[in-house]
Design goal:
This protein has 497 residues and is α+β, with helices and mostly antiparallel strands. The chain has a single domain, classed as FAD/NAD(P)-binding domain (3-Layer(bba) Sandwich), CATH 3.50.50. The protein is built from eleven helices and 20 strands. The strands form six sheets. Strands 7-14-15-16-13-19 form a six-stranded antiparallel beta sheet, covered by helices on one side. A five-stranded parallel beta sheet has the order 8-2-1-12-20, with helices on one face. Strands 9-10-11 form a three-stranded antiparallel beta sheet. Helix 8 crosses helix 9. Pfam families: GMC_oxred_C, GMC_oxred_N, NAD_binding_8.
Length: 497
């Protein structure tokens, strides 16, 4: 393999997207992934294996803020967490980039605007082949054109739900999705939400970003490679990566290094890389690495009518953003509502302890929703590392807004004809929307990277994942991560000229 000119750490949404964007430059690019390719198996469409037995969860534990061990919902495969994601590809709303007052505090906003990101959202939607439609969502920001593909069709029960919600005064709209429905269903009649993509039916980091990057002979993917630490010289340049592969250690190097391991592991790697010149970790002269961890406040909601069944297979095609920009007692934003992939009896039983027979009766009749509210940045909500062990002390914020969103949607669903409405908050084991641990900013004393993802402390080290997000918004972050990675690629490309 030729000497790499760019090393990308991680093959998830950020790493795959930046590799795809940089591939046409002709530079030798090496992508390092700690996991392997996710192969098809009977467990891939088995809800009991996925949700009850945790077949695809990592064999590792982190500590929470009280020092208790837990198994995180972080997935180590080629394609990263996107192999399991719900393929929801929202743009952040214009207001998400601005200073906002919330029920739980004030969000400081971003050092850039929506307009700065808009052309990159266009490119990201094209790369990930987003299905959607404009015109119905009251929070939708401006687009240069329509979505690349029409929306994934609603199943009959969901089309009926949309009519009921409109009759209640709301504005349901198609959920922007990266799903080739025919290809997904050809592999099995199941939801895709939370299920591993082994058929290419989801537009994930492997099937889109990596597939595009690997069309070029100058791009190489190396799996089974764990990056242990980064090395920096006296001038702050990253001079090497200590890695372990097949139980053997080696040191790799490249003129440019891109870190895209996810908000928790990116922060952990920088902290593990502490040395005599950087005792608090690399890129951490601001003492902000690992801080401001955010992970959406989220709940599952099941709405049912005892006399109506829901035979939907995938369900996840609808969103409601009427409470995204306001809805609180003084007009504060509350968050996003979207459908979950159809919850089955094994999923409900394993997550709630309800006997399987009762769980089946409920899920045969339920419509399943996912409610999501913004988590505000807090310097004490953080990732730390001690003796090689990751500790995630997530301190929820803005919980009042989430409770208000849950209460409003219970009223809405009852008004829409569902007399029984149940909800349950997601716990700390699912950091699937993790962000904020190496936030971008103009001020190097209060941020880790500049607005393009270049670290303030190391001129040849870039961060291309959700770590840099200054706020979490209240929509799924995947498309924003892809847009940031494309911006980061432009900065790297311009630096070579």
């Amino acid at each position: 393999m030729p000497q790499p000119e760019i090393i990308v750490i991680g093959s998830g949404m950020g790493g795959a997207t930046i590799a795809a964007a940089l591939a046409p430059t002709g530079r030798q690019i090496l992508i390092l992934e700690r996991g392997e390719h996710l192969r098809d198996s009977p467990e891939a469409r088995d809800a009991t294996a996925i949700f009850a037995r945790g077949h695809f969860r990592p064999k590792e534990s982190w500590l929470d803020g009280q020092g208790r061990a837990f198994n995180p919902g972080n997935f180590y495969f080629v394609g990263g967490n996107t192999k399991m994601y719900g393929a929801v590809l929202f743009r952040f709303r214009e207001a998400d980039f601005s200073l906002n007052s919330h029920m739980g505090g004030t969000s400081a906003g971003w050092p850039v605007s929506y307009d700065d990101f808009a052309p990159y959202y266009d490119r990201a939607e094209a790369l990930y082949q987003v299905r959607g439609a404009l015109g119905a969502d009251p929070s939708e920001p401006p687009h240069a054109g329509d979505y690349p593909h029409p929306p994934v069709p609603d199943e009959p029960v969901i089309a009926d739900l949309a009519q009921r919600l409109r009759a209640s005064g709301l504005h349901p709209s198609p959920l922007p999705l990266g799903v080739d429905l025919d290809r997904w269903l050809a592999g099995g009649k199941t939801p895709w939400d939370g299920h591993p993509d082994t058929c290419g039916g989801k537009m994930d980091a492997e099937s889109c970003g990596l597939a595009e990057a690997l069309k070029y002979p100058n791009v190489t993917l190396q799996t089974g490679t764990h990056v242990d630490r980064l090395l920096a010289d006296e001038n702050g340049r990253i001079t090497g990566l200590e890695v372990t592969r097949d139980g053997l250690g080696e040191t790799l190097s490249a003129p440019v290094v891109v870190l895209a391991a996810g908000a928790v592991n990116t922060a952990a790697l920088l902290l593990r890389s502490a040395d005599a010149r950087h005792p608090a970790g690399l890129a951490n002269s601001s003492d902000q690495v690992g801080r401001n961890f955010m992970n959406h406040n989220a709940s599952a909601m099941l709405a049912l009518h005892p006399l109506r069944r829901n035979p939907s297979v995938y369900q996840k095609t609808l969103t409601v953003n009427d409470f995204y920009l306001d809805g609180g007692p003084y007009g504060e934003p509350l968050g996003n509502v979207q459908l979950l992939g159809k919850i089955s009896a094994p999923i409900l039983s394993s997550q709630s302890g309800i006997p399987l027979r009762i769980a089946k009766w409920i899920t045969d009749r339920s419509i399943d929703l996912y409610l999501m509210s913004e988590d505000l940045p807090d310097v004490d909500s953080r990732v730390t590392v001690k003796d090689g062990q990751i500790r995630l002390d997530w301190r929820r914020s803005n919980w009042e807004a989430h409770l208000a969103l849950v209460a409003k949607m219970k009223q809405v669903m009852r008004r829409a004809g569902f007399p029984v409405v149940l909800s349950k908050a997601f716990d700390r084991r699912t950091p699937s929307h993790q962000c904020g641990t190496a936030r971008m900013g103009w001020d190097s004393t209060r941020s880790v990277t500049d607005i393009w993802g270049r670290t303030h402390d190391h001129e040849n080290l870039f961060i291309a994942d959700a770590s840099v997000l200054p706020t979490s918004g209240a929509v799924n972050p995947s498309l924003t991560v892809a847009a940031h990675a494309l911006r980061c690629a432009d900065a790297i490309s311009e630096g070579w000229t």
